[in-house]
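User: quick one, sequence for these tokens?
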């Protein structure tokens, strides 16, 4: 049975706000996102930056859980910036929020390590849901982007299938990730605990040499690991 201190700690953990930073060069959009996140219960805006260069300089003052980043930025673009942020902060989640929905940018962003891809016309409530979804282990995408991702990766045919010594259980879990499951739904599907699923997902990431669900899904489809 859980003691009072454990219950108190669990309650405080559930109230911990999702720390979010914004990288967007358009003032009205940046300020709008900052207000939405900063004035919504359960969220905290840790910073709103006009460029990747500004983010690199200031983001370390209060490292966020999630970054919302545009692609078309002055100076270094969002896709180049993802790689550097992931190197510096491997646990940081990065969602692209952009007007671009072309195959090349979607592919490049996911391969660079983006955890999700949203269009700027995403409704405010869906945007907040996407932040929660990312923290829960999901890879939120706008519907039109998600359909392109599946089509795009399934059309890629590498010369030969790669082998990462995945066990049958790890392959089954990877397939669930490809099918859109997060930690919670994968645990239910496997009739297992969330902690067990997280443990095996970590092993899958290590074997595939990736840092996020989106990277794992991209690699699984690109290298035909599930065929």
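Assistant:
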């Amino acid at each position: 049975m859980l003691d009072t201190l454990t219950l108190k700690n669990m309650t405080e953990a559930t109230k911990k706000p999702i720390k979010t930073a914004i990288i967007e060069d358009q003032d009205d959009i940046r300020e709008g996102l900052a207000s939405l996140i900063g004035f919504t219960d359960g969220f905290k805006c840790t910073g709103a930056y006009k460029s990747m260069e500004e983010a690199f300089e200031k983001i370390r003052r209060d490292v966020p859980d999630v970054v919302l980043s545009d692609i078309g930025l002055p100076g270094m673009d969002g896709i180049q910036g993802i790689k550097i942020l992931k190197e510096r902060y491997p646990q940081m989640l990065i969602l692209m929020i952009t007007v671009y929905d072309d195959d090349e940018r979607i592919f490049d962003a996911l391969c660079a390590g983006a955890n999700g891809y949203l269009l700027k016309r995403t409704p405010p409530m869906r945007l907040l849901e996407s932040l929660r979804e990312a923290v829960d282990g999901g890879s939120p995408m706008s519907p039109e982007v998600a359909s392109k991702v599946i089509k795009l990766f399934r059309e890629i045919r590498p010369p030969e299938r790669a082998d990462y010594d995945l066990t049958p259980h790890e392959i089954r879990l990877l397939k669930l990730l490809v099918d859109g499951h997060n930690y919670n739904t994968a645990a239910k599907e496997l009739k297992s605990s969330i902690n067990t699923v997280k443990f095996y997902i970590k092993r899958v990431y290590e074997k595939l040499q990736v840092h996020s669900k989106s990277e794992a899904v991209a690699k699984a489809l690109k290298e035909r690991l599930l065929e």
